[in-house]
Amino acid sequence: MTDTLSTPRLSVVLATDSHKTIRPVLSALRRQASAREIEPVIVLLDGCATTVPLEDLSAFPHAKVVCSVNHLPEARAAGVRIASAPIVFIGETHSYPQPGWAESLLVAFDGPWAAVVPAIGNANPTGAASWASYLFDYGTWGPNRHSGEIVDPLIYNTAYRREVLLSLGESLPIALDPSQEVLWPLLMSQGHRAALASDARILHLNVGTFRTMIREKFCVGVVLGEYRSARWSVLRRLLYLVASPLIPIVLFARVLRGARHWPPDTLPASAIPGVLIAALAKVAGEILGYAGVKLPAAAARLQDIEIRKVQYAGRVG
């Protein structure tokens, strides 16, 4: 008799500092009806300074653990390369699949898509800062958006046909770095398409205070500005600097369009002004990057918040 578990159907790449950080994610995967067909690919940063207890992986016969350097894009690329399933989900330490998520993702790949984005909700809807951060980052891909083809797919919290990612070769770590802004322009230029599956739902944990949100968005802007500064001409950087007072308004309007499906009584009153604060913080960081100011600590701070988001989230529930 053929062993139906010989090959996993879905790999989930989780780059983390330790197994404790991703235990809630593994618990959410364990509750999937097809858990035994899921292959968690745990990528331990900083040269395997920790291990993963076998009991944490007992529900997953295909689970893998790999060591990597302390750099998220490279770690996630390593996870994609070692994965076995034809569909690979680039997960995060603070994104929690909901019941039915895996099955709905796999069904969505019956279409012509290179990638499928799940519907993303707020895992800690307990305050204005969390809502502002969620709306700024993920409100466009919320649970009220209709399924179907999209032209604005995400990089993380997205499932891909593994062969599509592997076709990028040595460029894969760069492609998986959102600050490089190359993955989807490259894939779309090759004719690849993406969809949103509203039945496949995850909850994303967000920072819980405005102070941390401002720091996070500022660091995002600094890193993005530094990357753009390295490849943009002086003239283009000057044009962005001149236009910078308008950029927060553009970002704010974009977020509001994405959040238009949310009932007004769902959101705290200060969440929408908080989105504008997030936009201002991000643009302030970008301006420094365009001006050539180097802040190496920004990337390290951003990665710390990204990996250990639960420590910055406040009360969850």
- Overall CATH class of the largest domain: Alpha Beta
Overall geometric form: globular
Helical fraction equals 40-55%
* CATH homologous superfamily assignment of the largest domain: Spore Coat Polysaccharide Biosynthesis Protein SpsA, Chain A
What's the story with the biggest beta sheet?
9 strands, mixed
| Count of alpha and pi helical runs | 14
Instruction: Calculate the mean pLDDT score and round it.
Output: 90
* CATH-scheme architecture of the largest domain: Alpha-Beta Complex
Low-confidence stretches: none
The CATH topology of the largest domain turns out to be: Spore Coat Polysaccharide Biosynthesis Protein SpsA, Chain A
Walk me through the topology:
Blueprint: E1 10-16, H1 23-30, E2 38-44, H2 45-48, E3 64-67, H3 72-82, E4 87-90, E5 95-97, H4 101-108, E6 115-122, H5 128-138, E7 148-150, E8 158-161, H6 162-166, H7 172-175, H8 183-189, E9 194-204, H9 210-231, H10 234-243, H11 247-258, H12 271-290, H13 296-307, H14 309-312
Helix pairs in contact: 5-11, 5-12, 9-12, 9-13, 11-12
